[in-house]
Input
Amino acid sequence: MLDAASIANNIEHIRERIDRAAEHSLRNPDEIALVAVSKTFSAEAVRAAHGVGLRHFGENRVQEAESKRPEISDLVAIWHLIGHLQSNKVRRAVELFGRIDSLDSVALARKLNEAAAAQNKKLGVLIEVHLGEATKTGIAESDLAEVAEAAISLPYLDLLGLMTVPPYSEDPASARPYFQKLKKLHDDTASRIGRELRVLSMGMSHDFEVAIEEGATEIRVGTALFGKRSKQTTP
Output
């Protein structure tokens, strides 16, 4: 694991990349949130990143987040679940996370609302849309309207926006059509449901500059921040 100084140095470089991409697209870099994807990294790494200013952290699995939380329960942060959520883990997920960024069905929306109601908690959610291979998690474009309308009808859910993970490519530019598509879906969905959607979550360590150019308001960065994982995955 990288030490705190190395993580701080990496954050500085990531911020420089964000600033350049924002400048290139005539955007304010302060409008772009950085979610540190801490999956597979230790609680110690999370604490180090928090110590140099990061406040958003993303985990893929409920069980892994549970194992880390006792060591970092004192940190004030926004915890994002960015991986697929199984229905039998909904209650635990709502206890652990302030954001569920991988809503992918009406049924899951209803279960999340029920669990949030039991905890008297307003839960932020993003709808995950898959725009590439059918094997990706998330909903099909054709199901987006139904899930969005269900989410806004549920009193304990706060629909914030959309998220996607495009097919991986070594060439960051190859993700641009997917980011453009999600931006259009984001705007069309906001118009359809008659409310602002503040979050467009797209872009990872290797392609977030392209995502920012196409309108991302949140990027999810893991390896560029914490270093390579022992078993390489994205983001």
